[in-house]
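Teaching assistant here, posting this on the class forum so everyone can see the example we discussed in section. The complex has two components, and the goal was to see what a joint structure prediction looks like when all of them are supplied at once.
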Amino acid sequence: MTALAWRSLRHRPRAGIATFLAVLLGTLLIGSFATLAESAAGAPAPDDGTLVILGAVVGGWGAAIVLFSVASTVGITTTQRAEEIGLLRTIGATPRQARRLIAREAAAISFAGAGLGAVGAAIAGRLLFDLVRGGGLVSGRTEYGGGPVSVAGAALLVLVVSAIAAAIAARRATRGPAGVLARDSAAERGRMRWWRIAIALLLIGYGLAMAVVTVTVTAHDDDPYAAMSTSGSSSILVGLGLAVLAPVLLRWGAGPVRLLAGTSATAHLAAYNTARRSHLLGGVLAPVVVLTAAAVGTLMLVDIDRRTLPDGTADSDTITLLNNVVVGMISLFAAIMVVNAFVAMLAHRHDELRRLRLLGATPRQVRSSVAAEAAVVAAVGVATGAVAALTTVVPFAVARDEGVVPDGGLWLAPVVAAAVAVLTVGAARGAVRSAVRDAAGRPATASAR
Amino acid sequence: MTAIALEVHELTRTFGSGDTVVSALAGIDLAFRRGSFTAVMGPSGSGKSTFLACAAGLDRPTSGRVLVGGTDVTDWDEERRTRLRRERIGFVFQGFHLLPYLTAAQNVALPSRLAGRRADRGRVGALLDRVGLADRGHHLPGSLSGGQQQRVAIARALLTEPDVLLADEPTGALDSTTAGQVLRVLRDSVTDLGQTVVMVTHDPVAASYADEVVFLVDGRIGGRMAQPTADAVAGQMAHLDELVTAR
């Protein structure tokens, strides 16, 4: 089975690379912030508190998002192998063997990714510490204390999550009877599992509760940052919650496109693909939602803070840096995940894209149908993310006496939205270009099969 | 309209170069009358699939001409050949090639959609009715059996009233009962609609539904048989296999 896993990997490098990158970057991110928390152990007060907050807050948020995206990448790549797994089972592989194949493959990729990520995190952690100390957030007396514990811990955490994600996806892929042809039809209504809805509601409910607390309680606190501490995370929480519901959102979002499609073949194909394969494209939508929610929410939060508290307090620098780091980190990561998810998804749609070509779709039609799918994802994601961002922006604006609508910085939302949309569609275009080129390469082999 | 739906002249196709050159088609002349049903048969490696790919504009022949409905399409570029496939050639594949996220009716209407037109609902319904799936229009391929999926694919291939319907082992993935249904649908499209069908197969029973069988051996025409029966075709195939093995 291990030998088979390696061969299978060599055969599908793109899907492997997607998982590898997600694990690598995830470990790098969580690991480098974990070293800050570890450095706190040997630091004098009040530096130890600052380091713990930086490490725990930023690292914690990073962890939530990283784990989420690692899980969704592993999920996408495994779900798409239903056909191969069906084939293995028809020739006598037991469901257990098939699951082990998937688990070993995921483990091999994740080990490589996490290992490299841990090495990177040890270096990045030191650079991050220098940055924090250089910025005056901690005093010069405090030394870097990050060691193997924090880095290895981060790697282990990511490994465990990718293993769990692979196990869940493998179970789904091996459920039901063995068969090859029936599995080809990756279109299913994809009912939401109850636990997924429960997680989503929990996250959204928690985010909304924090928003309410901001308006009713912390807005009246003497510390101007009390309101920020309660409202700041709402957009990310609600964004994550909505991202968990991504397939449902896509099905809703595809409806209007269907009505507007007219005679356009590309819009027609895109509308039905997003609606009927929402469980696949949901993996792309999720990071788009989180990216928009986090970026709009946090940037507008910082903007309101800057306007209403021009002189700042003793903590202002740390807090602003913290916010910017969170937003920068989440944006970078989510952006990579969007690209990653598209590549992983399209790598396995070769057959389908080639099918379209054989039936008389021009390369341009195939490309633009995928771009149109991306546009649907971008539109739904940006709209959903913007709604999630409101849960941070509105309570904080109210708390700082600007009213429901902030006094300025409203341009931030459309700018972020446009950037996210460009990124999403651009990622799809880039990914599909290579996929179509391969698909049309030698179409004769398609009929010779 | 010419009386010939599809013809190839001196068609050759070689793969590789130098010492490893393989000649898949070594000069083939064939013409398919409008409203005829022809089976193309031959042992593995005889050039059946290459012939079909060249005729459909999927592959470029090394030399020779391909005429679809009297028009020489050999030198057309990819863009024009794509339009040719969409508008003048119907395709039925062994693996059905339906799009999993479109319903049966939407799959049938797809060629029209790709050409930028909305398909006539009545026509799609009539075609589904013709292949015996009038009540399955709203089903996704995943909930249809193999034979049903292949009949949807045939309805799709008939949508544009193509010059020629090319079928590549259309019953290769089906059991004999459902294969019979699929072949009857193909046969009826010839008899009732005057459709031209060229089918590559290695199944003598499938070939017996055709008006004529053309045998390919080593990229050349190795014989013909009019009004074929399954037994006669099987006998001829066994004979051809012996010829190939003997060399």
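For the discussion questions: The two ends of chain A are 27 Å apart (CA to CA). Residues 180-187, 439-449 of chain A have pLDDT under 50 and may be disordered. Think about how each of these relates to the inputs above.
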